[in-house]
Write a structure and sequence with these properties.
The structure is a single chain. With 171 residues, the protein is an alpha+beta fold. The chain has one domain: Hypothetical protein (Archaeosine Trna-guanine Transglycosylase, Chain: A, domain 4, Roll). 19% of the residues lie in helices and 40% in strands. It contains four helices and eight strands. Strands 1, 2, 3, 4, 5, 6, 7 and 8 form an eight-stranded mixed β-sheet that branches. A hairpin with a 2-residue loop joins strand 4 and strand 5.
Length: 171
């Protein structure tokens, strides 16, 4: 696959955490059949009062600094691509044990998941060779970019050894 248009919509702070190796997982109420996608920054959460309360104290400055992506009109900067290596289901009561692999507070995650089982997406994230300004179609979880993005020259955020260690610890 040389080009990709499919993207997952996610908070920009979380995308930057994934892209800088501060986070290794996404926690969802659902699984996915889509295992490869660009990470497309969203901004609506950053305009809500108290959104910073969703992040662990040590990540508050990071989350605030990365709340909003670079944009030019309707186009938003896309810098990262991800592959879902595995999805693990866990009871919502077990999410706190994974705290070092995400930047949210365990309380935020529990309020999002509720009593449902959590789907832990273990992601291998790659930095694109060159960020692109892109516009997407409408979509709640996933969308498509109007133009394809090249995957040539991308580099993994974590080297094989670092990723393998995290994968084994979560799995």
């Amino acid at each position: 696959m040389d080009f990709i248009k499919k993207c997952l919509n996610e908070w920009n702070s979380v995308i930057e955490a994934l892209g800088q190796g501060k986070q290794s997982i996404l926690i969802r109420k659902y699984g996915t059949t889509l295992d490869k996608f660009l990470l497309y920054p969203t901004v609506s959460y950053a305009h809500k009062n108290g959104y910073l309360e969703s992040f662990q104290n040590k990540y508050l400055p990071f989350a605030e600094e990365n709340a909003l992506p670079t944009r030019d009109g309707k186009k938003i900067e896309v810098k990262y691509y991800a592959e879902v290596e595995k999805i693990i289901e866990k009871p919502s009561t077990r999410i706190g044990a994974l705290k070092k692999y995400y930047i949210w507070t365990p309380e935020h995650v529990k309020s999002y998941i509720g009593r449902e089982k959590a789907h832990i997406w273990i992601l291998r994230v790659y930095k694109l060779k060159k960020p692109v300004l892109a516009e997407r179609t409408n979509g709640m979880r996933y969308a498509n970019l109007f133009e394809g993005v090249t995957l040539k020259g991308m580099k993994p955020v974590l080297n094989d050894s670092e990723f393998s260690k995290i994968y084994k610890n979560i799995n």
